Amino acid sequence: MPASSNSPMHICLSAACSIDGYMDDTSNQRLILSSDEDLLDIQRERSLCDAILVGAGTLRADNPRLSIREPPLVDARLRNGLPAQPIKITLTATGNLDPNGQFFQQGTQEKIVLCPTGVVTSLKSRLDGWATVIGIDAPITARRIAHVLQERGVRHLFVEGGVLVLSLFLSEGIFDRFRLAIAPFFVGEKGISRFQLQHALVANRQERLSIGSVRLLGDTTVIDYLHSRGRQTTRHDFETVSDTPVSSIVETNV
Ligand SMILES: NC(=O)c1ccc[n+]([C@@H]2O[C@H](COP(=O)([O-])OP(=O)(O)OC[C@H]3O[C@@H](n4cnc5c(N)ncnc54)[C@H](OP(=O)(O)O)[C@@H]3O)[C@@H](O)[C@H]2O)c1
Predict the structure, then answer these.
(1) Nearest residue to 144 (alpha-carbon basis) of 106, 179, 174
(2) What is the pLDDT of residue 195?
(3) Which protein residues touch ligand 1 with a CB less than 6 Å away?
């Protein structure tokens, strides 16, 4: 494990949406919202974390690999004493996961499935050793997920979706940074998937997030919102792993 469980965990949420706020459309194909430059920056974000979390819905919809593909970024991790790839983590209530999906089959890094304690046994049998299955007492909240992962030594968690999982963390206010990429087009009536926020952030509109930076990556605008969770962090606080340059970035700190 990459860090001691005593270190405070940094949680970055990442989402991309259209101008009208949609994170996907109704087609069977994945909606590409990010520019190439933004996708490269996401690779850099992955290279800075200990673990990447997505919900089971994203695994079923997109079958993502969740790996770092850029060799210089992998090399930088190794130089800094980190494993080549971050741990992959997913979350399910039903256990409806395909062990043949890329999440499980691609890469040798550890894969973790978080689920209610009641489905641990059946899920272990279904996954047949392809992942570590960890039960969490219901209700599974972002706070409980963070606690479990911190106990396992995760120091920097990168949450890449999808809608329900991001909504969980946003609603509870369990994040330090929210990286929002806005694509320069509308999805319109074919749009699906918007945040479903409950609890804290919606209930308290006085709690305005601060903006760490606004960047133009290709044609995609990336805003880093900062959330204090009782302490001050900036986008750059944890950027110690890699100084690999990412081309075509125009950055405006505000
Ligand atoms: N634009 C973006 O940035 C972005 C990023 C990622 C994904 N997406 C899109 O988002 C869509 C998928 O969204 P989604 O909301 O279905 O996916 P999701 O948030 O990745 O996964 C939702 C699933 O996670 C599990 N889950 C969530 N909260 C839970 C909890 N508290 N306890 C236990 N399990 C929990 C459940 O799995 P089970 O159903 O297995 O119980 C739930 O159905 C896709 O269209 C994908 O393309 C967009």
Answers:
(1) 174
(2) 80
(3) 15-17, 23-24, 30, 33, 54-58, 61-62, 91-94, 96, 140, 160-165, 168, 193
Q: Whose CA is nearest to atom 38 of ligand 1?
A: 92
What is the C-alpha to C-alpha distance for residues 175 and 157, in angstroms, rounded to an integer? Answer: 9
Mutate to test the pocket of ligand 1, among 147, 159, 193, 223 (most ligand atoms within 8 A of CB): 193
Q: What is the largest CA-CA distance in the chain?
A: 51
What is the spatial distance between Cα 188 and Cα 194, in angstroms, rounded to a whole number?
Answer: 12
Neighbours of 76 (CB within 10 A): 19
**pLDDT computed for residue 204 by the predictor:** 61
Locate the ligand 1 atom nearest the alpha carbon of residue 90 and give its number.
Answer: 24
Where does 10-252 sit in CATH, by number? 3.40.430.10
Domain positions in the chain are: 10-252
Structure confidence by residue, pLDDT tens digits, 7-37: 679 999 999 999 999 999 999 888 999 999 9
216's enclosing H/E stretch is strand 210-217
- Residue nearest ligand 1's atom 40 by CA: 92
- Which pLDDT score is estimated for 149? 97
pLDDT in tens, 157-169: 999 999 999 999 9
State how far the Cα of 223 lies from the Cα of 231, in Å rounded to an integer.
20
Query: At residue 145, what are phi and psi to the nearest 5 degrees?
Result: -60, -45
